[in-house]
Amino acid sequence: MKRRERTRQLIELGGLIVKAELVELAGDDRAVILGLLVEAAAKLRGEDREKALTLWRRRGVRAFNDPLDK
Predict the structure, then answer these.
(1) CA distances from 39 to 2, 3, 31 (A)
(2) 63 to 4, 27, 43: CA distances (angstroms)
């Protein structure tokens, strides 16, 4: 992946963290946010992978359709 593409990807992924309100809810504690992401990754390695993906995809689509400022 080229540097410019990687930078864009990182910015977009950071935007998702903000959109999910994780920064506010975790008090900007990056260890907590990373812990949440590690926990999600562990879930995706488990037997309930497809169930989790389906649930999270539905929630994500709903969140994308919600305005950023509530």
Answers:
(1) 29, 28, 12
(2) 27, 21, 21
Element holding 4 (H helix, E strand): helix 3-19
What is the DSSP code string of 7-67? HHHHHHHHHHHHHTTHHHHTTT-HHHHHHHHHHHHHHHTSTTHHHHHHHHHHHHHHHHHS-
Give the pLDDT of the chain (70 residues) as one tens digit per residue: 899 999 999 999 999 999 999 999 999 999 999 999 999 999 999 999 999 999 999 999 999 998 765 5
Closest CA to 42 of 34, 28, 20, 11: 34
Whether 49 and 42 have beta carbons less than 8 Å apart is answered as: no
